[in-house]
Amino acid sequence: MKYFVILTFALLSVFSVLAQDKNADDLMKEGDIAVAAKDYSKGLSLYEQAIAKGGLGESEGKTFYNAATCARKKKDINKALKYYIKANKLSYNADMSSYYIAYCYKELDQGSKVEETLVPAIQKHSKSKYVNHMKKMLVNYYLVEGAVPYNDGNNILGSKVPQTQEEKDELIANANVKFEEAKVWFEKAAKYAPTNEKVTTTLAEINKHLSGEVQ
Fold first, then answer.
1. Distance between CA atoms of residues 186 and 182, nearest Å
2. Which DSSP helix (H) or strand (E) runs through 179?
3. Who's near 191: CB < 8 A, 6+ residues apart?
4. Full-model pTM
5. H or E element: which one contains 207?
6. DSSP string, 7-62
7. Which of 41, 103, 132, 198 is the most buried (most CB within 10 A)?
8. Considering the chain, what is the average pLDDT of its residues?
9. What does the alpha-carbon distance between residue 23 and residue 26 come to, in Å, rounded to a whole number?
């Protein structure tokens, strides 16, 4: 029994040394295997070990990107964002890393950062096969933001029946303030989705309100 314990301890020591001797490239390759098996926790751990080891050279951007993807799959959005930003700065999959940076900001309810990320990315990667995904995310952000003042404007108009022309004018004026706010968002959306029926229909309705055609 004593011999068995000593042998087990010796073997564990050998394995520990071998693990410590793994270089960053070995760890990255093991991470790839883990990801292929959809073991994202293990993959993230291995990629982070590889990053800590350093010396990845041209593979550094890929490792950060893969680590970000593992973190995203694990719903660790803050960590995913950090690693996608690093991958983007290293110009690895710059179009997709930009998209996922915006995705992370969306998940973290940082809408202005979504716009800040996607507007230049769409321009820079206009030939990317992923550019339509970027545009869709940006348009959805604009629609969500624009819907708030648009609905507020309609609610103001429906809040009460005016008894005098003065009351009616006041309601219309207050509603139009909201419609002006909404128009900014829907015009932004129209820039990236000019044939989107929801965008064009709502924008036309807003313009009717502001021109006095609808009261």
1. 6
2. helix 165-192
3. none
4. 0.85
5. helix 197-211
6. HHHHHHHHHHHHHHH--HHHHHHHHHHHHHTT-HHHHHHHHHHHHHH---GGGHHH
7. 103
8. 91
9. 5
Return the half-sphere exposure (C-beta side, CA atoms, 13 A cut-off) of residue 74: 20
pLDDT tens digits, 150-170: 999 999 999 888 899 999 999
- pLDDT tens-place string over residues 107-132: 999 999 999 999 999 999 999 999 99
The domain 19-126 having CATH identifier 1.25.40.10: the answer here is yes
Q: How large is the angle between the packed helices 94-107 and 131-157, nearest 10 degrees?
A: 30
- Residue given tokens 């004026």 in the structure block: 173
> Tokens standing for 15?
């394995």
Q: If DSSP codes are grouped into helix, strand and coil, which group holds residue 165?
A: helix
Decide: 80 and 103 in contact? Cβ < 8 Å.
Answer: no
- Both tokens of 81, joined, read 């964002």
